[in-house]
Write a structure and sequence with these properties.
heterodimer, A: 503 residues, mainly alpha, Amino acid/polyamine transporter I, 22 helices, globular, B: 33 residues, 1 helix, 0% strand, rod-shaped
Amino acid sequence: MAKGIGYQGEPDIEREMAKTREYFSSRWGLVLTALGMAVGTGNVWRFPRVAAANGGGAFLIAWLLFMMTWSVPLVIAEFVIGKRARQGPAGALGQLIGKKYNWMGAFVGLCTCFIMFYYSVVTGWCLKYVLLSATTGFPEDPETFWKAFTRTGHWEPILFHLLAMMAACGIVSRGIVSGIERTNRILIPLLFLLLIGAALRAVTLPGAVTGLNYLFTPDWRQLAHYRIWLEALSQSAWSVGAGWGLILTYAVYMREREDVVLSSFTVGFGDYAASLLAGIAVICTVFAVLPQTEALRALGAGNQGLTFIWIPRLFSRIPAGRFFLSVFFLALSFAAISSLIAMVELAARMLIDLGMTRRRAVPLVGLIGFSLGLPSAYSLRIFDNQDWVWGLGLTVSGFFIAFAVIKFGAGRFRRELINTPYEPYPVGRWYEFVMARLIPLEFAALITWWFYQAITVYDPEGWWNPFHAFSVGTCLLQWGILIVVLMMVNRQWAHRVFELAEA
Amino acid sequence: MKTSGIIMMILMLGLVWGGFLYCLILTARRGRS
C-alpha cells in the first residue's frame, strides 16, 4: 500500500542519516554530479550525427521542445522520488505507489544495469583512443585499425573494459563526497572546457561555415515529417538520461531542504549545452575537411563509424590535429566515465538497499559488471544487440516513472512533493499535463516508431526472431524474461527493502 | 552563412547556453546548501 505521505515539516535528521549516511557536500556538488550523469557519449557522438541528418535547425526546435515535455519533467520526478524514499529505484517506486509495483522500480534499475555492462566497453574504447592519440598516434587507416581492434575475440577491448570498470568502481567505493562528487567536480568543468576548445578550433577552420549552415539553417518542411519529431524525442530521452533511475539514485544523497526544480533545469540545459558544443565541433570539422558528399557519408557512418574511424581521419588533416584529437577523445572519455560512475552507483545502491555494505556492494558490482560486459567486449554483434534492447528499454523505464507519478496522482505529486516550502521555484499545472498526458503518448509513439523501424528497415525478414540483433522479438524476449523474473520475486524483494528501510 | 542559419544559431545558443548560465547563476546565488 502506498504510504502517501507528503511534506511533513522538519525532517528527522537522525532517521535520514541512518538510512543514507552521506549527503552531497553542497548544491554545486549535486549539480555537477548530476551533470556528469547526463552528459555522456550520446552528446558527443550521437547528437551531431542525428541533428545533421534531420534538417539541422528544424530538428533543433523539436529537440528543444522535448526538453520541456519529456526530459526535465522526468528529471524532476526522479529527484523527488529518490529524495523522498532515500532508496534506489527498486524500493523508491514501491514506497511511492505500493509494494506490488516494486518490480517496476526494479526494472528501471536493472535496465540501466544492463546498459552499464556494455557502456563500460564503450568507456574502454574511449580510453584506448585517448592513449593512442596521446602516445604513438593513429595508423594510416583508422578503419582498418578499428576493425582489427573490435574484431570478435580480440583481447584489447576486454582489457580496456576491465580498466574502465575498475576505475569507476574505485571512485564509487570511496563514497559519495570523497569519490563521486570530488571526481565530477574535476571532470565536468574540464569536460566543458575541452568541448569549448574543440568547438572554437572547429569554427576557425576554413570552410567551417558550411558546417554551421548545415547544423543551424532550418529546413521548415522537415517539421511536417513525423520522423524529425521522433528522432528529436529519442535524442532528448537518450541524451539527458531522464527516467533511467540515475538521478533518482543521486537524489538519495540530497539534503532534505535542497530544491529540485532548479537542479533539474540545470541538468537539462547543461546537457543540451554540451550537445550543441559537440555538434559545432564535429559538424564544422567534417564539413571543413571533406567535400559535401563525403561529409554526408561520414555523418551517416553511425556512432562508432563517425567517432572511431572518421574523427581520427579528419583530425589528421587539420593543423595541430593530433593535439585536438587527444582533446576530443579526452572529452569523450570524461563524458563516458562520469556516466559510468552513475551507473555503478545505481547498481551498488540497489545492493545496499538489500542490506549490503558499500564496501562489499561495489566490488560485487565490478565483478558482475565486468563478467556480464564480457560478451559485448568480445563481439560487436552482441554489443549492438544489447544497445538496441536496453537502449529502447529506457523508454519503458521513463514510462514507468511517469506511471508512478500518475498512480500517485500527478496533481498531488506536484502540490505535495515538488512544491514543498523548501522549493523556491514551484512548478505550475503544466507539469501535471505533461506527466499524465504527454509522456504516455510520447512513450507509445517512441515504441511504435522504433518497432516500425525494426520491421521495415533493420530486419524486415526476421523482425519477429528473438535471436536477431535488431529485431522486435529480441526486445520482447529479453524485457519479458526480466519482467517475469522480477514479478516472481517481487514479494520477497519488496519485503526485504521495506524491512530494511523501516529498520 | 545564410540569414536564417545565423538567426537560428543565435536563438539556439542564446536559449540553451543562456538558460544553462542563468541556472548556474541562480545556483550560485542560493549558495552552499
